[in-house]
Structures are given as C-alpha cells and as structure tokens.
Amino acid sequence: MMRSGQVADAVRYAAAHRRRFVTELCDFVRFPSVSADPAHGGDVRRCAEWLAAHLRALGMPHVGVMETGGPPLVLAAWRRAGPHTPTLLVYGHYDVQPADPRDGWHSPPFKPVVRAGAVYGRGACDDKGQLFAHVKAIEAWLNTAGVLPVNVLCVFEGEEEVGSERLRAFLRSHGGRLAVDAAAISDTMMRGRGQPAIAHAVRGQLSFELEVRGPASDVHSGNFGGAVPNPLDALCRIIASLWDARGRIAVADFYDRVRPVSAASRAYMARVGPVDADVRRAARVPAGSGESGYSLYERMTIRPALTVNGVSGGYAGVGPKAVIPARAAAKLSVRLVPEQDPREVDRLIRRHLARVVPRTVRVTMRTSSGVAAAEIDPRHPVVRAASVACEQAYGVAPVFLRIGGTIPVVSTLQRDLGIPTVLMGFALPDDGIHGPNEKFEIDNFGKAIDTCVRFLAEAGSLRTAHRRPGQDRSSRVRPPVVAASEVTT
Amino acid sequence: MMRSGQVADAVRYAAAHRRRFVTELCDFVRFPSVSADPAHGGDVRRCAEWLAAHLRALGMPHVGVMETGGPPLVLAAWRRAGPHTPTLLVYGHYDVQPADPRDGWHSPPFKPVVRAGAVYGRGACDDKGQLFAHVKAIEAWLNTAGVLPVNVLCVFEGEEEVGSERLRAFLRSHGGRLAVDAAAISDTMMRGRGQPAIAHAVRGQLSFELEVRGPASDVHSGNFGGAVPNPLDALCRIIASLWDARGRIAVADFYDRVRPVSAASRAYMARVGPVDADVRRAARVPAGSGESGYSLYERMTIRPALTVNGVSGGYAGVGPKAVIPARAAAKLSVRLVPEQDPREVDRLIRRHLARVVPRTVRVTMRTSSGVAAAEIDPRHPVVRAASVACEQAYGVAPVFLRIGGTIPVVSTLQRDLGIPTVLMGFALPDDGIHGPNEKFEIDNFGKAIDTCVRFLAEAGSLRTAHRRPGQDRSSRVRPPVVAASEVTT
To answer: What are the E-state strand segments in A386-482?
Structure first.
C-alpha cells in the first residue's frame, strides 16, 4: 500500500505541470491519425512514434511500437512493483475519427487551439486526451515517488475507430501471456461537468456498407427517367425497409436474442442517468426519436439501434444535374446489446436484403467489423478502486452508466480473456466527440489526471489474480465472471 | 428559292473543311462551361465570348454577348434576305452538364480528344457539337453563296442545363419583337446511327432539392444511436414514400392531369420507336423498371417520371464513421407530360412532404426550376422542311420520336410565343450525354452540318408568318396552333 503522502506528491506534481501537459496534448492532437482513411496511414504511424518517444522520455523502461500489418500498437511496460503486486493494463487509442465535414469546425480539426479553457481539435477528448491523462499520471508518479504503485502495461492502439481487429487478434493469441490482473480504459462519458461516471455496459457493433449498382454508367435522367432502374431510389427504399412504423428494426428475428433488462436496473438508470431533456440537449435536437416504450437513455443503451452513417450517390455539387447514377452507396452500423451475436445479425441483415432488394439492381453488402457488447460487474474490486479514485478527485461519487457506444477491446478483455475491465471515462456529454469542435476541457483534464494518479495507487492494493510463470494452472485465481450481471444499487 | 447548285456548293465546302471544324469543336468543348456550378461562371463567360468571336470571324454581321444577370446570351443576326423571306431562330446552348463523377472518364472531360472517329468531351454532343453544326452550316453558305437562304437569328444560351430561366424571361418579354417565323433546335436524339429523327414532344421538368436537418451538429452514432433522429433515415423514408409498390408516383393527385395518349399514337411509337431491348442497351442496364402497362419507351416519354439525381449526407469517405449527421440532402426531378403544370406538381409534392415528414426532423424543399412539356405538330411546314433536309443528308426519311428529356425553351417558343419549333437532333443513343465519355461522332457531325446546310435552304422557302413593323395586327398570319396534336402517321 502506498503512503497517502506519495499520492499527494504526485497530485501536486500534476497540478504544477498542467500547463505543459496541455501543450503536449496539443502536440498529440496535431497528428491527423484518422484510421478510417488509408491516406492517413503515415500520420497514424508518426503519431504512434511520437507517443512511444513520449513514453520513453518520461521514464517508461520498456516501450515498443509493435507492427500489426495496420496501425501499430504502442506498448509500454513497467513491472518493477514485483510479482506480488498486480498488473494493470492501461488501454487507450491514439487514432481518431475523420474530421469531415470540415465546415462545422470553428478552428481546423488538426490545428489544436486552447480556447475558453478547453483544447479544441479532433481527438482532443476521444481518445487522445483521456489516454494522455493516464500517461501524465504515470509521469507524475515516476517524477515524484520514482516508482509506480502498481505494475503497468500500456496498450495504445491505432484502430479503435475502425473495429480494433488487429488488437483483438493480438489479445486473443497473446492475452494469456500478458499476466494482467485488470484493465482500465478511459474512453467513455461522464454524467456531466464535475459528475464522474463509470461505465458498466457498452453496446456491440456491426458496421457495413451497401453498394447498389444500376446502369453501367450514369445516364440522362430526362431521356431515361421512368424506365431505367435508379440505384439511389433502390437504396433509399432498402434503407426505409429497415424500420417499421413504430421505430423498431424490421429485420426478421432481429430482436430474438435481445434480453429484457430488469426493472431494478431500469429504475437505477432512471435515477442516475440522463433524462430525455439531457439527451436532447447533449445531441442538440429538439426531439428524440426511436422505439416507443423506452426512455431516450434506454433506447441508446439497453436497446439495439441501426444507424445510417452516410449515403452517397449521383450528383452532390451545386445546382441540379439530370442524371440517373450508375451506383449509390451507404454506410450503416448496428449497435448490439448483450447476447446479440454480430455474425448472426450480419446474416439476418443479408437475409433481409435478399428479400427486399428489387431484381432490377445489384446490391453488395460489405461488413467492416463486428464486435459483441460487454457488461462489467460494478461490484468488482477494480471497479471499486476506480470509484474511490473518482470520488477523491472530483469530490463526488461516480454513478454507473450504460454507454451506447462500442469499445471493441472491452468484449475481448472481458469475455474472451476474463480480464476485469473498468471504464472510467472523462468525456463530457457536450465534448463533441465524433462531431465538429471536439474539445477536452482543461479543468476536466486536470481532474482526469488526478483520478488516474489515485487509481494507480488503488489498483496497487488489489489482489493479484493472474497466473504467474511456474504457477500451477489449477491454482490460478480467476477474476470473477463478469458477463451479464446487473446494477441493482 | 435557292438554286440547288448553291446547296451543293455549301455541302462541298463543309465536307472539305470538316477536319478544321473538328479542331474548332474541340476548342469549343475545352471550356468547362458548367452552368450548374457558380464556380464555373468565368468559364461560362469565356465560352460565350469565344462563341461570339467565332460567329464574328465567319462573317455574321450582328453579334452580341447579351448580359442576363447569369450566363450571357450569345445573339447573332443575319437579316439580309429581305422582309419577304422568313426568319429562322436557331437555338443552341453552350453550357454543359457537370462532368462528375470524374472516375468514369477515359480522358479528361474538358480536354477533348479525337478517338476512333469521335470527339470525346463533356458537351461534345450536348449541345456544343449540335449547336456547332448550325454554325458551320452558316459558314458554308456565307463562304460559298456569300448569303444565307433565310434570315437567321442565332440564340445561344448558357443555362439550358439549369432551366433556361433567363432566356425564357427574355423571350417572354422580347419574343414578339424578334419577328421570327420558326425556330430550329438540335438538342435531341436520333433513332440510331444513320437513322435521323425529329422530336415532336419533350417532357417538362420540375427540379428541386430536399434538405433534412436533425441534430444541430453531427453526433456520435454509438452514444446516441436509437434515440436521436437521423436526417439520413428520414430522407430515405421520404424518398421511398414517393412511389407505390407498382412503380407509380405515390404523390396524391399527381396523375390527375395526365392525359392518355391515343392508341394510334402508341401504335406509331411501337412501330418506329426503340423497343425495350434498345432502351436497355442504350442505358446499359440488364432490366428496365417503372410503371407497368407501358413499354420502356412509353415510360420515358408519355408518362411522367420522378428521379432522384443525388443524395448526400453523413460520411462518404473511406472506411466507417460512427456518426449521425446534422443534415442530409437530395436532388430530385420530375419529368412532366403535357397538361401537367410544374407549379401545381410542386404544390402536390409539398403537400405530400407535409404528410410524410416525421416531426423529429425539419425538411426544406427548394425548387430550382419548372418547365412545362411541349408538343409539336409534325405536319407543320417547318417540320416538313427539316424532314426533307434530314432525308437528303442521311438518305433516309426521319422518324418522329418523343423525347423524355426537357428543352426548357421549347415550351416558351411553342406555347408562350406561338413560334413553330422543329427539334432536329443529332445525338446518338450511345453518345453518353450527361454521363461519362460523352462523344460526337465525326461522320455524324458531318451529316448534321449537311442537314443544317440543306435545312437553311428549305426554311428559306417557307411562308413568312410573323408581324412586320407597320403591318396591321389583325392581318397578322399566325402560325398554326401546335399544342396537343398527335402523330397519327
């Protein structure tokens, strides 16, 4: 157990250096590390190298940039706390969402600026800022106590925004040898400004593209209009067929595995979660939408959702153009709840398409990624450790929230490897993640670092659970199973 | 009446100079005179100035570039045939369709090339090449006989592709003073290679854009998916609502004014017009689509059609992006048949939208242009003159075709001003107008010039019909009414 004086020293160090930390975060945000676009492959790599160099400079002894065939993994290990102290995997992602459309940004997305107490830029919050809070907490410990209170393995990936396929494959094949007791991820939302939250559920995801082809090339819509199949009409009709009039997904058997959430759990959600007005305010919409019988918070967490993320086809320039386009395309994603298998949902959607696609066009469905949902037992010691750290840093106990988004690695850590994972997120609902003018507020950045400093200390007092080399497999203390439990308090 | 020797001289001149004419056409096509895009305003103007200079250089005495507040009109008059010879308005448009998408083009759209006996480039056929056939016919006359066989007023506009609003306003306010007996337009299709056609019907058009707005800015589709209205879903559902399951337009009262075409007229269409396989081949589609009970040729001419010309919204880059976009937009156009009033159809669509748009999004409909359909009596003398010219040049009598497209000025000339108008088009069904790799075949260009040379002579023998200055209004010989007659031969 660390002495509280050491914690206080590290917290003071972080506060004293916050100004420099902000400058460094801006350097980090400056890389347009957009994993979705191969044209940014060089930026993604340079960002990884910058991060590795930064970790080396602050004293992490073992830092590597690991090739994956795609965006590299940045790994950093500090294991000097000895075999009787647990090992914490700190996960983050240095890749970011595309910044398009650019016209909504008040300052260029990859020229970060500090304005009104916040760093603005793509990735400032999701996830560079949150990842960096852990990095700076490590720095604070190393520059005060000279040691960390827990063994740490940093795993920073560069393709979270496109499904984490390579990291998940790496973890599935090497995860058992990592000797990790718990994992911490900061890539989720707080309840509000100054109101910490720990996420105990993330939805899964299936992402796919539809391409519809009609004429071999674009044709004149005056001359041929009414007689030639239009891939745009067909695509719109296919998309429209995906919901019924009540806002439910109209793909046959889609809800078969969707499990109702207990009344106690829904009551807890209603007590601590955002009310409809909060959701509308965060999304900046005058009205919510979706499946009746559920609050907006429930619709975006305990219910699956199908979203069209983009449609393109035909003429999108200024003015009219009389054309029937040769092709039209859409990007869609389904958010899944526990028990829904992304592969099965993929099959159901393909079966639906086979039924609704008109014979006059050809449709191709390309699946980009599939990730199962995950749930975390809020009673697990590592979650309690995070809860204590949050309360110390923010002065308020965190609430437990369900998150509508997906962090692909969570299901791999939790479900595949049995590594208890705590989601201790620092994004504010209005931080604009995935939208224009993404920001990370500096005061919140400071509190996030404070939380991470304290969490390292708390994690150091957890019991070790993983198998040591030479330890008998049968005597291994497994972490509790954390699959489908419910928050009831 | 011109001596046939003069016609033969002009025809020979055109044949002898065809190579230079092709080079000049390439110069004409090189201007990216895209009227839809204000960014090309300078190119449109430079193209107009080039055309005016060209007309001056070949000896037209009165050439002007007339300001309209938009793309200028190029006007050129030759009235030396005297008041007892009729005046022919030669119409063409020097603006072109956008060349997007660029990736389908084998050579850049605005770097015209001669390949396999054709000029390739945006506008090579629609309408620069066809307009230029008239210009070169005028040159052939002026450089052989030294005079034209008919008074000529060239009216070349620069916004046909966006609805001809300014030209139509100009004609409505000045048309009476133009003292024109007939108009000739070459901007339509032939029946096939070597098979001339005169168009006797064009559809009208209503172009509009829909914009759907949801969240004030893009939001995360994981965090909010299922609870926040998505303008893309809404737009797709709105578009899907525009047709019923049988392929008919589902806007209430839409067909109220659609008049059935006579059995005799349909029989003529079946005899001379393209069969379904021709249409499929021209559009390069494996199957047609649309309203049952009509041939493809009928669906694209005597029936109205609603076409989606473009949809955009959300992420269209490489890879996935988890976003619910703030806005989505579509460009649509309706092709109208006679008796359908574009303003009334506009109202019907707005009423439909009011009924189907979900309350969770805001939709704006912006009408770009509305043009009524037009029909031309194939028995009118000016049509017969064109028919004779076509037969002489091609060695085959033309057929009378209905055209699915719209030439906005036709309804203004025919219906508003009572100027009989002949549509003597030279586009081949596979010339790729409005699509990539638009071309104009050089052999066909030659025959088109030949036709125009002969047509000027034929037009010179028509009776004058318009009111002369000083002539009593009551004694004015009006052209025959040419509204709704049918082809019965």
So the answer is: 399-403, 421-425, 439-441
